[in-house]
């Protein structure tokens, strides 16, 4: 891009620094805030509207000279991303719980669907006692967090009355809170958020990033709970009708950045926020989901812990030919390890015991790499 073209960029242009490769162990290039993880180079992308004006790969040690010619407003966006890449992710306070949520290793979040129609295990844990038993089993298997949902958000799902949603999950949360288990509530309804946190839930996981319910932002502010902001295009009923993006990785990034700004403007500190690119939620089944899987490291530049929820998703079946969601555990593990390799802090899964083993081994290899080739 010529100097003349750079000078014509407007203040609406946006710069992005997307890591190319992720290396564990001895420093290779740019050191991230995740201990042991570095990025040897970046794609420097400048986008104005839907048009990519600049896209080239820059070694990490040449970033300063590569950014220097950019207009100040554009350059400052990239520099802010670098600052957030480098910042550590401190432990996250959980309301009503003395021990914070730490991110020194990847955390495993076990899925508990107290629903009749979830895509993978609908109906299995609709009974309160069965749900409680399953949660305790996942905790015994090594789950760090249990994510409890009372409304299916699978593609094509019909909305559930929030009173019924609360009736399904509140008794489960109350029982598990007494056990001291870190709990997340998977809901997009403000009244359910409030009831769940009052019952003992510690985290709010909203697939709409606090946009579906007009009162959800104020409810989230009032709880002091960490919030998981997920990207989705459309609602569960419509999201797979015709998902469309100019550039799925950049578009999802922009959306999450905007939602973070909305939250901080409302009084939610960035330190309470977790981001989730929303694998399978309003995405073209293979093309978009694979692009996001390969671009997970980029989302660290939002300055929040990153959650990956790819477990048993349809893109795994589309690639492997496995139609039954419950039979997609091997593919789910491959997705988890792809995320862990890129430094994601939380993986949301159905198959807890298998995931815990895979994540522990991956973490041990990363730790060994940090000690050097000779151990």
UniProtKB/TrEMBL annotation:
<dbReference type="GO" id="GO:0005829">
    <property type="term" value="C:cytosol"/>
</dbReference>
<comment type="pathway">
    <text>Cofactor biosynthesis; tetrahydrofolate biosynthesis; 7,8-dihydrofolate from 2-amino-4-hydroxy-6-hydroxymethyl-7,8-dihydropteridine diphosphate and 4-aminobenzoate: step 1/2.</text>
</comment>
<dbReference type="InterPro" id="IPR045031">
    <property type="entry name" value="DHP_synth-like"/>
</dbReference>
<dbReference type="InterPro" id="IPR000489">
    <property type="entry name" value="Pterin-binding_dom"/>
</dbReference>
<dbReference type="GO" id="GO:0046654">
    <property type="term" value="P:tetrahydrofolate biosynthetic process"/>
</dbReference>
<keyword id="KW-0808">Transferase</keyword>
<protein>
    <recommendedName>
        <fullName>Dihydropteroate synthase</fullName>
        <ecNumber>2.5.1.15</ecNumber>
    </recommendedName>
</protein>
<dbReference type="InterPro" id="IPR006390">
    <property type="entry name" value="DHP_synth_dom"/>
</dbReference>
<feature type="domain" description="Pterin-binding">
    <location>
        <begin position="106"/>
        <end position="360"/>
    </location>
</feature>
<keyword id="KW-0460">Magnesium</keyword>
<dbReference type="InterPro" id="IPR011005">
    <property type="entry name" value="Dihydropteroate_synth-like_sf"/>
</dbReference>
<dbReference type="Pfam" id="PF00809">
    <property type="entry name" value="Pterin_bind"/>
</dbReference>
<dbReference type="GO" id="GO:0046656">
    <property type="term" value="P:folic acid biosynthetic process"/>
</dbReference>
<keyword id="KW-0479">Metal-binding</keyword>
<comment type="similarity">
    <text>Belongs to the DHPS family.</text>
</comment>
<dbReference type="GO" id="GO:0046872">
    <property type="term" value="F:metal ion binding"/>
</dbReference>
<keyword id="KW-0289">Folate biosynthesis</keyword>
<dbReference type="GO" id="GO:0004156">
    <property type="term" value="F:dihydropteroate synthase activity"/>
</dbReference>
């Amino acid at each position: 891009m010529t100097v003349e073209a750079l000078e014509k960029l407007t203040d609406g242009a946006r710069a992005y620094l997307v890591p190319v490769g992720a290396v564990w162990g001895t420093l290779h290039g740019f050191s991230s805030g995740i201990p042991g993880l570095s990025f040897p180079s970046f794609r420097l992308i400048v986008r104005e509207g839907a048009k990519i004006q600049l896209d080239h790969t820059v070694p990490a040690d040449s970033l300063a000279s590569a950014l220097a010619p950019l207009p100040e407003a554009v350059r400052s966006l990239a520099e802010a991303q670098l600052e957030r890449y480098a910042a550590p992710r401190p432990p996250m306070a959980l309301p009503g719980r003395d021990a914070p949520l730490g991110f020194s290793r990847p955390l495993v979040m076990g899925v508990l669907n107290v629903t009749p129609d979830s895509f993978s295990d609908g109906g299995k844990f609709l009974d309160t006692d069965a749900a409680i038993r399953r949660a305790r089993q996942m905790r015994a298997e090594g789950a760090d967090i249990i994510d409890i949902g009372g409304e299916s958000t699978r593609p094509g799902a019909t909305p559930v009355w929030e009173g019924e949603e609360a009736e399904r999950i509140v008794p489960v949360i109350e029982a598990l809170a007494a056990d001291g288990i870190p709990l997340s509530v998977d809901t997009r309804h403000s009244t359910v958020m409030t009831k769940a946190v009052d019952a003992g839930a510690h985290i709010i996981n909203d697939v709409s990033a606090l946009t579906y319910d007009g009162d959800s932002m104020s409810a989230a502010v009032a709880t002091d709970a960490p919030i998981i902001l997920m990207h989705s295009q459309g609602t569960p009923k419509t999201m797979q009708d015709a998902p469309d993006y100019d550039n799925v990785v950049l578009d999802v990034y922009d959306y999450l950045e905007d939602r973070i700004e909305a939250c901080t403007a409302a009084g939610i500190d960035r330190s309470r926020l977790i981001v989730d690119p929303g694998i399978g939620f309003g995405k073209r089944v293979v093309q978009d989901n694979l692009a996001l899987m390969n671009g997970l490291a980029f989302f660290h530049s939002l300055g929040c812990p990153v959650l990956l929820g790819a477990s048993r998703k349809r893109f795994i079946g589309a690639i492997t030919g496995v139609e039954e969601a419950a039979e997609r555990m091997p593919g789910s593990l491959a997705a988890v390890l792809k995320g862990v390799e890129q430094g994601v802090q939380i993986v949301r899964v159905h198959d807890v015991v298998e995931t815990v083993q895979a994540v522990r081994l991956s973490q041990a290899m990363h730790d060994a790499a940090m000690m050097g080739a000779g151990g």
